[in-house]
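DNA repair protein RecO
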Amino acid sequence: MNNKTEVIILKNSDYRDADALLNVLSKDYGKMTFVARGIRKPKSKNANSCSLFQQSIFHFDLHEQRSMQSLRTAELKYSYRKIREDLTKQSIASIMVEAMDKIDIEIVEESFELLETSLRFLDTTDNPMALLGLYIARICEMCGIDPYVDGCVRCQREDHLTAISLNDGGFICSSCFNENLHIKKDRSVLKFFRLFNKADITQFPLIEEITPCNYSDIEDILAFFMEYSGVNLRSLKFLQHISNLK
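Predicted structure tokens:
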């Protein structure tokens, strides 16, 4: 009774007349689902603390035998204001929480730290695409589906890398390249792909100083995640639309 936990909102869905179902990542309990009663009423005191990717403190009475908990009150801890003022960052944050919502989590503390750290960086960075690429690579690693980037996935040759193969699971060198199976990639795409899969999220301040990353530089790591996790990122469409406009 009288439990509280720090959460990041992963999904907010309408439920009944004025209620909402909240999928959250809790720092203490992992993924949880809350019923937030009356949250869609104009005078709801909890509404602002329960918006997508907000970081809040939830007060509730834990019932371990229930699949859904009932939210009593919520306190906003961090609002990520600068994310909400930028359409590209909003879209990227939506992809981050959707990916976390849809994967199976084994290490709660590591998962929460990854998402929290990524959102903090996203709030201030001028290179948000690079952050998304790094975040998705870390998700792939957590799920055990990270690609092979130490050389050619077919022959282990470390030089003359020229393509990224979704089917083979990593880099392809010029000797193993097959024009019927593979598409050559620009050097910048290959560089970012390896960097995403080698760097830790805490190293992002060094990565963001590199040449700005574009959507084309992160398409392959996104494709790897969706192909090998079986997750379809619905929120990705908006980011694609924004990127096509620029």
